[in-house]
Write a structure and sequence with these properties.
Distance between the termini: 67 Å
Strand content: under 5%
Oligomer: single chain
Amino acid sequence: MILARARGALVTAILTGAVVLAACGTSSSPTASASPSPSAAAAAASPDALPSPTSTPWPGNVAGAVIAIGAVDAQIAAAGQDMNAAITAKDLAHLRGAAEGLVTLLDETQRFIDTARAYPATKDMADAFTRAFSGMRDGAQEVADGVKNGDAQAINGGFTALGVGLNLYGLARTSLGPVLEQAIEQQKKYVK
């Protein structure tokens, strides 16, 4: 009887996760539309705030870090699809693996965000990604832990946190577009 109730609660948590992931789905474009905050919109709309690629080269590996942040977008979309597939199949082991994979991806990407944060012209964009990735990471970890421990409440909480992180990610992506364009130009002009 207790096992049946626990399974029912897990199924409910998984279905909640499907709704969260569907509502917050990702797109493969780093400039997907979202409703940015006024300050994020101003930063995204003002490519003049960024040094021109014809001016002084960006320091260190900042351009490469920004490009790496942009490249991870497709992997995040794939992780979301993987989680959705697990939810659709009601496959808890697959869901746990997909959530853990997302945690690993976000952890590995943090070093690029840290590099971008060190340069004033890319700091705001990096800060936006840190906020988004923190929420996504915490949510995905909570989902994985909830599945591992058979804790439906943790799974629900994890999907809620993941949803908030994905919304922040949508906002962060709007700030990436102009910075990414500049980073690509930096790579073309200064990296031989």
